[in-house]
Amino acid sequence: MKKDFFKSTSLIEYSKENYHSNPITSIDEIDFGTENKNIRWLNTYGTHHKSEFKAIVTKSLLDDFLLKLITEEKHPNKVLELDNALFVTIKVLKTETKNFQTEQMFFVLTPHILWSIQEEKGDYFEWIRERIRENKGIVRNKKTDYLLFLILESIIDNYEDAYDKISSSMETLNQGTDVKPTPEFTQNIEKEKNILITFKKAATSLRDIITKLEKVEQQKINKKFYSELSTQIHNLLNSIDFDLQEMESKINLIFSIQGHRLNEVMKTLTIFSVIFIPLTFLAGIYGMNFEYIPELKHHNGYFVLLGVMVIVTLGSIYYFRKKKWF
């Protein structure tokens, strides 16, 4: 089991002048102490290494409550300030899968070490590792709060890229005003709307985490980094809200078109009904089986009745046209 943990764990240690990234072969190599002033990024794939987690927490004299937090598999998004560390947990939307599953990620932050625990192997943080390795930008001049900032920024960038691709491929968003009130179109627009809502939930959760990080007092967090993230995530949420509003307007337009069509059908049926009601009334009178109906003996009675029916029909049509009912 330990071999699996060591294969799934990497440690990057760096400063302005130095960089080291060697395989871990022992828990003793993991030190959360403050004597070592280098910045260390410990990354573990898998949340099932509970005995190794316990050994690291115990050896590093971290808050005991941290052990309970990282051994629980499911967490809502939260930021907790512990005695000597900051604990952050995020449910990250996996945009690589079609059904948009979520992955739990834990972060344990101290001034000199960031421990990231990812539920599954694989991530999109390689560009951060490259910047550290090649000493690009200012990452090696900053502390762990900046490293956490880069990781969260990478998550947001991934959301933005994935959202741009998905929204540009959505038929209902790119059809303009060409709305087809068919069952297939309605089903498709509801499906795409659910995708947008899924993205909005993920982005909203991440925004809440960033807002909490801006309010952290105990750990040395440079809040200007997270203010930038807050602006970035708000822009993404605004884009999602705009697309959702556009989709809602199309859904409302579908209902309006369907309602208008139903009204047209009902109006046509009503007009026909109003025209035929007096005709049916006249036919009903002269269809009664009474022996003494004076008009029945009239030589031209049949034609007179037909003429009355024609006049009633034409009069009704003229009245409806004058009222602009059709």
UniProtKB/TrEMBL annotation:
One of its GO terms (molecular function) is magnesium ion transmembrane transporter activity. The chain crosses the membrane at residues 269-288, 300-320. Keywords: Cell membrane, Ion transport, Magnesium, Membrane, Transmembrane, Transmembrane helix, Transport. Mediates influx of magnesium ions. Alternates between open and closed states. Activated by low cytoplasmic Mg(2+) levels. Inactive when cytoplasmic Mg(2+) levels are high. InterPro entries: CorA_cytoplasmic_dom, CorA_TM1_TM2, MgTranspt_CorA/ZnTranspt_ZntB. It catalyses: Mg(2+)(in) = Mg(2+)(out). One of its GO terms (cellular component) is plasma membrane. Belongs to the CorA metal ion transporter (MIT) (TC 1.A.35) family. SUPFAM superfamilies: CorA soluble domain-like, Magnesium transport protein CorA, transmembrane region. This is Magnesium transporter. Pfam families: CorA. Its main location: membrane. It is found in: Cell membrane. It comes from the Bacteria. It is a multi-pass membrane protein.
